[in-house]
Amino acid sequence: MVRRFKRIEGKVIEKIPGQDRLAFAMSGTEDFYDLIAWSRRGGYQGSVILFYDFENGEVYQPFGKKRNVVYGNPVFSDGFYYFLQGDYDENRITLYKYLPWIKNARKDWEKGRRADEEKAWKKDKETNIEKVCKKDKEINIEKVCKKDKETSIEKVCKKEEGKEAETAAETVETDEENYRGQILQPVTCFRADEMDLYNLRIIGDQVHVISQNETFRCYYPERISFDLDPHETVCFMEEGKVYIEAWIEEGWDEENECATDEYRYYDKVIIKDFNGRLLSEETGSLFQAPDGTWWIS
Q1: Which pTM does this prediction carry?
Q2: pLDDT digit string, tens, across residues 64-101
């Protein structure tokens, strides 16, 4: 069976690792670095980023098309989609946090929430119960629940968990099938002329905004930089470690420009700390599976 999205434009869509709900596409192929060259030719027409919903066929467009504006590939982290927007006229790169819908995305957030967040919620729950008990020593928890269902312990405990959803729900417009509200929030922004726009993108299990050329630079959530060899590429970051893939070529005859019988081409996985110090190195290639996990092959 062939299904159709509700907006057909012939664009190639790409999976967003770590979730199964959305894919994305860009209206153009230009990246942030290309805007510098376009500025010398009178500017760029602009592009849009589109999100394709496999559950209901909807196509979401968080922003309209604007001249000299381009977007970076989105990532999925902690139940939200993050992407970069570059506005050359405003000399600004902005990191956005996005959810195109509320109701069903909440399930994804619950499913993908980290174990430490679960522990933190349980800790808050216990704290809230203690606060309720201390608030009125003469009334026990059972009487509070019976006296006023609206202020039951269950709702008190869920209050902290639901803050984010409740805030978003204030802007929700509903119909019989689905919530149509969205979350679209700027997380942080940068001056474009203070960044290296080459290979500017988002990586990491947690969101990190980086660029890499001869130097690796991280702009968010912390400032990090160290030199890279020409054959090294930073793939992701987590828990104070930077995971780098390096290609290795052995047995190449430079004089005759051909491979010898001993020729080998393979990858290495190099792990460094945030100061650029080598932690480990091994033969292997990094691969991100559709569920978002990273594998060494």
Answers
A1: 0.73
A2: 999 999 999 999 999 999 999 999 999 999 999 999 97
Nearest CA among 278, 259, 276, 258 for reference residue 268: 278
User: Higher confidence at residue 154 or residue 187?
Assistant: 187
Contact (Cβ atoms closer than 8 angstroms) between residue 52 and residue 23: yes
What's at 204, amino acid-wise?
G
CA gap 79, 183 in Å, rounded = 12
Selection from 22, 19, 67 nearest residue 42 by Cα: 67
Q: Is the per-residue pLDDT at 244 higher than 50?
A: yes
Beta-sheet pairing, 258-273 with 215-220: unpaired
Q: How far is CA 94 from the centre of its chain?
A: 13
Domain boundaries, the chain: 14-100+182-192, 113-169, 222-296
Judge whether 217 and 225 are in contact, CB under 8 Å. yes
Distance CA 128, CA 154 (A): 10
Total residue count of the chain as it appears in this document: 297
pLDDT tens for each residue of 39-49 = 888 889 999 99
Query: Is the CB of residue 60 less than 8 Å from the CB of residue 16?
Result: no
